[in-house]
Design a protein that fits this description.
elongated; 21 strands; alpha+beta; 13 helices; five-stranded antiparallel beta sheet
Length: 485
């Protein structure tokens, strides 16, 4: 258990793009005290205390283990068990710090929502399984924004994949899609969110808050507390030579502890008996629960999982993108440029105000979903308005209804081609696998309005922003595992 740990709420309040998610810093100052010690402290000080009734429930493994340990209360057993815990704590502190340093060197986070791992810097063939598993877990948890770590067969599969150099294949695991990065010759791996993977049904894809809900932000002192905590805990991180279980699996820790004389034969046997009882209990619970498995445990959050969004609201899309949109009062329009559209910018001195009749209204509700293949094809069609179908032709004509409809229509076509050409150029710089997790805005009829990450807008009236700001930072936030002697 960590001495300090930073946890993050699944329902955050983002009031603007500069909002910070500091989460909650949990500190356990009495972690090294036994329950008996705390009882004595309270009694001597004349202080009342509160007992958590769930601590007596046999539904929880930790309670069953605690109760079983009461019959093994000899001084030798307690001291040897504490020695194993201390060695595990040292190992965890070392691995956490090692992975943090390595992520700063070998991982590049792209603001479009994906990561690139440099295998030449990572050098996975030289890393211990425990360090490499932790490293990959942190990267995949960051990209997928899942709390559950990678375990079991998935962990072994990842280890085999990441150690293949150069990388030539792709893999889907833990809500992420991994593949060789373009033009890297397999020396770099792309990690992006897989929108087709099942997500927990309780995981909400969007959190929306209006500007009227503003409250005071988190005290800035928290950042200083975390900084000081990191500096302090760094003094407790051992060298690799002092870490006993770096090359051990969870199944072999006890065997290694016995080999190193950290625990005696009797303590080793007693712990194995406790482990056997717990495994049998677990198997019995699994058999009882097979017929009662909920059909709603997971659901596929597909590319069509739309969320409503009104003007001025902030949409936190899939715990990673802050999306907001509004309508401009004065519509900037540009005359037909003589040079390539991509040589122009959509903002700046080249624009002048022009009357515009737009079909979008301030009370309109748009939907946010993942980008799909038809969005790319639609952008390609916009480059040649002759290839647009009747629905899109009608939309252009409706948008240009004014006294100077022909002028407006030409300006609107220029704008669409301009925006589409620039968007396609930017999309080509984003890996295909990463494009699918980009948020897009559509109207209730499913027509594409905007791909904010690449600046595309189907109407010059729209003002859209999209900021990549994951709920949980890379590395999972601050934690420390101090050594109590």
């Amino acid at each position: 258990m960590a001495f300090t740990y930073q946890t993050f709420s699944s329902s955050m309040h983002f009031y603007d793009e500069d909002s910070k998610n500091d989460g909650i810093l949990l500190v356990r100052p009495l972690l090294h005290f036994s329950k008996e010690d705390m009882y004595k402290v309270c009694k001597v000080g004349g202080q009342d205390w509160v007992e958590d009734p769930t601590n007596q429930s046999l539904l929880y493994a930790r309670n069953r283990i605690r109760m079983s340990l009461r019959s093994l209360s000899s001084y030798t057993f307690k001291s040897e068990l504490q020695a194993v815990i201390s060695a595990c704590r040292k190992t965890r502190a070392f691995v956490d710090q090692f992975c943090t340093k390595l992520m700063n060197q070998a991982v590049t986070i792209v603001h479009h929502g994906y990561a690139i791992i440099d295998l030449e810097i990572l050098n996975p063939s030289k890393m211990a399984d425990l360090c490499l598993t932790k490293f990959m877990t942190l990267v995949l948890q960051f990209i997928s924004q899942r709390q559950r770590p990678v375990r079991g067969s998935t962990s072994k599969l990842l280890l085999e994949y990441i150690r293949t150099f150069p990388c030539k294949t792709s893999l889907t695991a833990a809500g992420c899609y991994l593949c060789p990065a373009t033009r890297s010759k397999g020396t770099k791996i792309l990690v992006c969110c897989s929108v087709d993977c099942p997500f927990p049904s309780k995981m909400e894809s969007t959190f929306i808050h209006s500007d009227a809900e503003k409250t005071r932000s988190m005290p800035c002192e928290l950042e200083q507390i975390i900084t000081d905590g990191k500096l302090y805990s760094d003094h407790f991180v051992p060298d690799a030579s002092d870490v006993y279980f770096l090359d051990s699996t969870s199944e072999s820790v006890l065997t290694e502890a016995k080999r190193l004389n950290i625990i005696s034969d009797s303590t080793y046997r007693n712990i194995l008996l406790l482990q056997k009882d717990e495994i049998e209990y677990f198997k019995a619970r699994i058999e009882d629960d097979v017929e009662c498995e909920s059909k709603d445990e997971v659901e596929n959050i597909t590319t069509c999982s739309n969320e409503p969004l009104r003007p001025g609201q902030i949409c936190y899309f899939m715990s990673r993108f802050i999306v907001r949109w509004s309508l401009s009062k004065n519509i900037p329009v540009i005359p037909i440029p003589e040079k390539s559209y991509c040589d122009w910018v959509l903002e700046g001195e080249g624009w002048h105000h022009h009357p515009w009749s737009c079909t979008l209204s301030h009370d309109m509700v748009v939907e946010v979903r993942h980008m799909i293949e038809s969005d790319w094809l639609y952008l390609a069609k916009l480059l040649n308005h002759a290839s647009l179908d009747n629905v899109h032709q009608q939309r252009i004509c409706t948008a240009c209804e004014s006294e100077q409809s022909s002028v407006n229509r030409n300006l609107y076509l220029v704008y669409l081609r301009f925006s589409a050409e620039r968007a396609l150029k930017l999309l080509k710089s984003i890996p295909v696998a990463a494009r699918r997790s980009l948020p897009v805005l559509v109207n209730h009829q499913g027509l594409l309005l905007s791909i904010p990450s690449i600046g595309f807008k189907n109407c010059p009236c729209l003002t859209v922003s999209c900021i990549f700001k994951p709920r949980v930072p890379l590395g999972g936030g601050h934690s420390s595992f101090m050594q109590f002697l």
